[in-house]
Amino acid sequence: MIIDLSNAKIGDLIPVSGEEILSDELLDREGRFTAPVKVSVDVVLISESEAAVTGEIEYGIHTYCDKCGEECEYVYKAKLGASFSGSGEEDTYPFGGMEIDLSKAIQDCVILDLPTKVLCKEDCAGLCPICGTNLNVKQCKCKESAEDESNPFAALRQLDFSGGAE
Ligand SMILES: [Zn+2]
Ligand SMILES: [Zn+2]
């Protein structure tokens, strides 16, 4: 996303909005971006060789729950702040004086913002580690029987204490 600053005056606040298409490879997990990133920023030309960008981006992903593997889709918003400099200062993006290319800044912003963990819902119950049943959908019997085996008193449950009261 190129922003033309050739007519900008120093100190002007220039509102810019647009879209940026990102490669799904940026998504460090199985899935894809659902739409181009929406970009809404203000650009300020600070000097002839410096510009600053602040604003917001919005992006959506289609991916799979980390616990149960079900498909899920989310939209995220992130703050974008970037400095552009013609003198190649640290933590700045290159600026030739006429235009800035916001693409790298948008990419970096999304990479930093991407969630490390995605769940289909906050209290996703996940899959049973023994039989693989999706515990959001139905309950299996694995947990009960595993508890029984490890409990030395489990056998007592089989005994009948109700008799003998004549
Ligand atoms: Zn889930
Ligand atoms: Zn199970």
Task: Give a structural overview.
The protein has 166 residues and is mainly beta. It folds into 2 domains: 2-113, no CATH class; 125-159, no CATH class. Helix content is 12%, strand content 36%. It contains 2 helices and 8 strands; from the N terminus they run E-E-E-E-E-E-E-E-H-H. Strands 2, 3, 4, 5, 6 and 7 form a 6-stranded mixed β-sheet that branches. It has a two-stranded antiparallel ribbon with strand order 1-8. A hairpin with a 2-residue loop joins strand 4 and strand 5 (50-64). It binds zinc ion (2 copies). One zinc ion is lined by residues 128, 130-131, 133, 140, 142.
Descriptive terms for the model:
166 residues, 6-stranded mixed β-sheet, two-stranded antiparallel sheet, binds zinc ion
Provide a concise account of the structure shown.
By secondary structure, the protein is mainly β.
In the predicted model, the low-confidence regions spanning at least 5 consecutive residues are none
> How would you characterize the largest beta sheet?
6 strands, mixed
How many H/I helical runs?
2
Q: Residue-averaged pLDDT, rounded?
A: 89
Helical coverage, percent range: 10-25%
The helix/strand order is: EEEEEEEEHH
Using DSSP, what is the number of strands?
Answer: 8
Bound molecules: zinc ion
Structural class designation:
mainly beta
